[in-house]
Amino acid sequence: MAEKKSKGEKVVLAYSGGLDTSVILPWLKETYGYEVVAFAAELGQGDELVGIKKKALATGAVKCIVKDLRKELVEDYIWPMLKSGAIYEHEYLLGTSIARPLIAKHQVEIAHAEGATAVAHGATGKGNDQVRFELTFMALDPSLKIVAPWKDTNFTLTSREAAIDYAKQRKIPVDQTKKKIYSRDRNLWHISHEGADLENPWNEPKDKLFVISNPISKTPDKADYVEIGFKEGIPVKLNGKKISGVKMIEELNRIGGKHGVGQTDIVENRLVGMKSRGVYETPGGTILVAAHRGLESLTLERETMHYKQQVALKYAEMVYYGQWFCPLREAIDAFVDVTQRNVTGTVRMKLFKGRCSIAGVKSPNSLYQMDLASFTMGAEYNSADATGFIRLFGLPMRVANQIERNKKK
């Protein structure tokens, strides 16, 4: 709970201009007398930031700072995550999770620059984002006061309906209505949808839900192909041309979205202990993850690949849990970077009716040798060697089962 003697103190609020932060901004000022510095991060959320400075100042902010963080998001957060292979619970590509530490990091930097004593966020007490924001605040400056209105006993706007009424009373413009009440988070990597009819997992997502991709029923009847060039695990070329990471994802979002690629409907396990249902659109990310995995299949030897799969599970948990600024994550990155030294090459992807599949892969560092893999026996592989190998490999099984047979005699 925030302290009541906050008049004249500055707080840096992570401000999206969405329903929650639109009402939290004036609430912080009215309830505690904070001078609110609104911080909006440009992360590729389309036109959501249009007019955001004017809105923030009109609703009580003493200042509104907007930073374009798309390049930093891609190069310092998404690319390391892509190289790691991190996917949470088989399907979630961590679009919201990976962006929160970046936003919180810049909040801390702004707090230092503006002489603020506190940082604030609009995440609820039920979700994962509260953890992601607050762990970052704690890691980067534990002296800053953390203001989390949803966990404050004085905060009564604990339903979207109540927040909409509050906004209406104060003439604060918000996009949500009581009929259009999905909770969405969008950035360059994805867009998420939660709430309303999606809270019942028996309900199929409606076609009109999707924002950056076509419903499958409206995708083209002809496939498209894209070629992605990687250098040491990082995507650097699209269809043979060098391209920035931001432009790469934007273009793959466009073409992947056209084919309905990357639509995921999952019930996931939140860190706070409950299950939640979300629908995600990650067209470009889905293409890149599949392409990267395809190139690794050609360039990583077996033991490294299998161990890396185990590491990827831990990496995904750490991103999901908000543990980005953690020594273990940095250590895993060092391991991953070694594994990516030979992950250079080109992958051709086929996009059709919601699927992206590998249509071809090549690398100058390929470990795949056609003469070894061929069914035609040659001098490179002596089949007789396999007899002794199998006998030794199977020795523990043979001994264990012999004991069981003897017990039955």
Taken together, the total number of domains comes to: 2
Q: Which ranges are low-confidence, i.e. pLDDT below 50, for 5 or more consecutive residues?
A: none
Report how far apart the termini are.
71 Å
Task: Find the CATH superfamily of the largest domain.
Answer: HUPs
In a nutshell, what does this entry contain?
The chain has 409 residues and is α/β, with parallel strands linked by helices.
Write up what this structure looks like.
By secondary structure, this protein is α/β, with parallel strands linked by helices. The chain has two domains: 10-87 and 97-180, HUPs (Rossmann fold, 3-Layer(aba) Sandwich), CATH 3.40.50; 190-300 and 342-362, Argininosuccinate synthetase, chain A, domain 2 (Alpha-Beta Complex), CATH 3.90.1260. The protein is 41% helix and 19% strand. Strands 3-2-1-4-5 form a five-stranded parallel sheet, with helices on both faces. Strands 10-9-8-13-14 form a five-stranded antiparallel sheet. The protein has a four-stranded antiparallel sheet with strand order 6-7-12-11, with no helix packed on it. The longest helix has 20 residues, at 95-114. The radius of gyration is 25 Å and the shape is elongated.
List its traits:
409 residues; alpha/beta; Rossmann fold; Argininosuccinate synthetase, chain A, domain 2; 2 domains; 5-stranded parallel beta sheet; 5-stranded antiparallel beta sheet; 13 helices; 14 strands; 19% strand
Secondary structure: elements and pairs:
Blueprint: E1 10-14, H1 19-32, E2 35-42, H2 52-58, E3 63-68, H3 70-84, H4 95-114, E4 118-120, H5 129-140, E5 145-147, H6 160-169, E6 183-186, E7 191-194, E8 224-231, E9 234-238, E10 241-242, H7 245-258, E11 263-269, E12 275-281, H8 283-299, H9 302-321, H10 327-339, E13 345-352, E14 355-362, H11 370-373, H12 385-393, H13 395-408
Helix pairs in contact: 1-6, 4-5, 7-8, 9-10
